[in-house]
Amino acid sequence: MRPLPSFLVLFASLAMPLAAQDHQVINAPGAAVGLPFSSAVRVGHMLYLSGQIGNTPGTRQLADTGIAGQTKQAFENVKAVLAAAGSTLQRVVKCTVFLTDIKDYAAMNAVYATYFPKDPPARSTVAGTGLALGARIEIECLATVGA
User: Fold this and answer.
1) What pLDDT score does 130 carry?
2) What is the rounded end-to-end Cα distance, in angstroms, of the chain?
3) By the 8 A CB rule, do 123 and 96 touch?
4) pLDDT single digits (tens) 7-29
5) HSE-CB of 146 using CA atoms within 13 angstroms
6) What is the pLDDT at residue 13?
7) CB-based burial of residue 18 (10 Å sphere; 0-12 exposed, 13-18 middle, 19+ buried)?
8) What SS3 class is residue 16?
9) On the CB side of 103, how many CA atoms lie within 13 Å of its CA?
10) pLDDT at residue number 50
11) What is the per-residue DSSP string for 48-86?
12) Would you call 143 exposed, middle or buried from its count of C-beta atoms within 10 A (0-12, 13-18, 19+)?
C-alpha cells in the first residue's frame, strides 16, 4: 500500500481543528437572543466575532447617532464579546469595518486608534449602504483565545 501524498496529509491535518467538538458558540451577555447568528464562534485557538454595531447591549437602540459615538459603542460591544470568550482587544489579529458613508472614515479612524494605540491588527474598511438598525458602522474581528 502506497503512503498518502503529502498534500493530502497536510489537508487532513488542517481540517482536523474544524471537528464538531472544537466548535464552540459564544453569546455575550445582552446579546440578541433568537437571531440566526452567534456573538462569536471559537474553533481551536481562533475566535470569529460576528459584526458589532453601536447598539446599547440587550436593546435594538443605537447608543448614539454620530459616527464617533457609534464606533465607541461598537468597540465596547466587541470588548464584551471578547471577554465572554476569554479574550481581549490585545489578541485581535484582524478587523473589518463596514461604514455606510466613506466620509465617516476619518472620524471612525480617530476612535479606532484609541482602542489599538500600539501594534494595531490588520484591517479592512469598506463602505456600502444599509446596516442593521440603521447603524452607520459595523465592526467584525478575528482574535486568538486560549494558550
Assistant:
1) 92
2) 39
3) yes
4) 444 444 445 544 555 889 988 87
5) 8
6) 45
7) exposed
8) helix
9) 3
10) 94
11) EEPPB-SBPTTSS-BS-SSHHHHHHHHHHHHHHHHHHHT
12) buried
Other beta carbons less than 10 A from residue 63's beta carbon: 18
pLDDT, one tens digit per residue, over 39-84 is 999 999 999 999 999 999 888 899 888 999 999 999 999 999 999 9
Q: Do 54 and 108 meet the contact criterion of CB atoms below 8 Å apart?
A: no
Which cell numbers hold the place of 6? Answer: 503529502
Helix or strand holding residue 141 (H, E): strand 137-144
Distance CA 87, CA 144 (A): 7
Query: Cell digits for 125?
Result: 474598511
Distances, alpha carbon 4 to alpha carbons 13, 14, 22, 87, 128, in Å: 13, 15, 25, 38, 46
- Cα distance between residue 33 and residue 57, in whole Å: 12
Cα–Cα nearest to 136, from 146, 147, 127? 127
